[in-house]
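Example (one chain per record):
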Amino acid sequence: MPTRILPAVGDADAVRSITTLLSQLPDAEPVAPVVDSTQLIDTLARLAAESVDELPEVVVVHERIGPVPALELIREVALRFPAVGVILVTSDASPGLFQAAMDYGARGLVALPLSYEELASRVQAVAQWSVGVRRHLGAGGDVFTGVGGTVVTVSGAKGGVGATLAAIQLALAAQASGRSTALVDMDLQTGDIASYLDVQFRRSVVDLAAITDISPRVLADAVFRHDTGLALLLAPAEGERGEDVTDRAARQIVSALRSRYEVVVIDCGAQLSGAGAAAVEMADRALLITTPDVVAVRGAKRAVRMWDRLQIRKAEETTVVVNRHTRGTEIQPPLIQKITGTAVAATSIPANFRELQSVVDAGRVHELESRSAVKQALWGLAGELGLVKVSEGAQKAGRFRGGDRGAVSFRRRREG
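Predicted structure:
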């Protein structure tokens, strides 16, 4: 059986030399190279969604891959796709880097300039390891879950557009449908999830920032279990401590959560931090909440362009959600889609603060009545995003039954 090898190389000259050499290896089947970290993760996720057997046995990561640094990328691949062996190609073959690469999850290291013998030896050894892991996982049934849980980030076009409320209700909808769900407050300086859910807590996301290997027990100690069943990982009470959560720490935290929960909803707030940027980049779905007014829509456009410039996320990979929507407003979803260049969710959230005010003031937004138009819309959005587990009977009836106070219909709404 040929060994499938996926090169991840950003430099054009390096691509040619590596792919040429890989094509000369015996029983090797190099696949089309990927040019950055985002494309690599997306490719592996798409293949894993089909079957573990569709994944390449070997991934070759060049040291100058970006925008995620090579070692961080290797860690993410190792955590999310444990049946894939990773080889790091680097000009620094020092013992220190070799040890670091092994610690991050690499299965081998090859020095530049490449030699045929060294590359062939490493690829063969890593491929044999990968095949052995897959054989073991196959015997264990559902041990390997491929891409892991679904990660959704919720960001605000500006402050006060309702991103936190949206994140909470999306998480509640997923949890009520029977999916294990984590809700993370990555708005590190001004996060309000604890206030919205009336939670008193001791630990926060900062407690995981300095830990290099987040075990299930360590993660469980940092998570607050809410009465609704949600696992909460909250922002620190002292906002200045948020600086301790680096982009590297955020990647590790999100990867650990993804491996433990079916759905991970992350509130990133309206200010872009390194940790928030890492979360948005790693997300399966990135939502940007806006209201239908000029200032907020301009903010959404500005955020989308910034994400693109920083190579965090492309506009076409972002979904804008319109909050406080009314039929009479001058700015409608199709216009917002045209301005931002993004997809716009089919479900818009209606403007009705009166039905929210009492639960917001009491810090009990999880007790929002099921007949609330805002809640129905947000839970409908969760259905649109595929976050809820819907029974076959509910699918035929066109609705999802929530676990708190009755049925919530997923109605197909006409665009305003």
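Caption: Residues 139-147, 395-399, 401-416 have pLDDT under 50 and may be disordered.
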